[in-house]
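Form 7-S
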Amino acid sequence: MIKFNRHIPLGSLATSVVDYARLRSIGVLGLLLFALLAGTALVRPAIAGDKSVVVVRQQKDRNSDRLIRGIKSEFKRSGETASLAVITISELQDHQRNLLDSLRALNPSALVPIGSHITEIISDSISDIPIVFAAVFQPKSSGLFKRDGKAVSNMTGASLDISPALQFKYFKQIYPGLRKLGLIYSEETAQLIPHAKVVAESSGIELLAVRVEKRSGRGSGREVKKALDSLLPIIDGLWSLADPSVFSPVATKLVIKRTLQKKIPFMGFSSTIVASGALFALDFEYKDIGRQVGELSRKVLNGTSPVSLQTTTPEIVWFHYNERTSKRIAIAIPEELQAVAKEVHK
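Output:
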């Protein structure tokens, strides 16, 4: 059963909030009407011989817009003639038939769900249409490639996974004295911890990871508070993973507040967290993620089996930091990183 976290305030593609009941009630008429109003290529179901790609996103935002532009630019560069349609769930009206039936009625050559939860919904129910997901965190360790205990064979995609080695490299560049690094995680990211500990050790870092149980609202905040109470007295810095069971609005504010009070450098997992007060984060170039999706989709459209295509990782990574936090905790960002920063929050 898919569970949806309605609390994470990060606005990231990979943690989009999805109302499952609404997804199940979106009808084909709504899809076609929206496409007509939006001016997309989705004005009729595909017919035999046509090549068509349907992108499904939760909402229209800057990151998904850039991702879609990346797909289009790759199609243009490569001469791919497939039509590209975009379905924005939040802009559709409810109808009787569900989203999955509607997608089948459109008969696309490939589906591109954006974000982890939309990808889960579509991949759990559709096995006969190629799926090229976009902007998904930890697709393999999360079990996304398993369906009823069996390997999924109709899917590949572009992940948002930045290697722990690269993240630790940036952290030590900013704070050379880093020896003990804290991390709060839940069952959703538990599979990542053993590998991260090995990588940390090879970088001269001891990763101290504390697990919290899944809670909602204030319960989440209480769990994270306990973890912070045990970690902050003994760590040099705090790392984070995109874990919706940890980073509820309440818990996110608490982590930022406590790390600022203790002058502990906190590495967020998105630029949104940095804007809220984390010291720094590595973020993605979504247009390049879209380019990767376009390249994978083009191969699938031309007959390559999705299962034979390696899941991609970000090739362009941007550095973001918070100048106000840097001054408050008295940790200076090296000049070489200031020079290449994509965004500085002041």
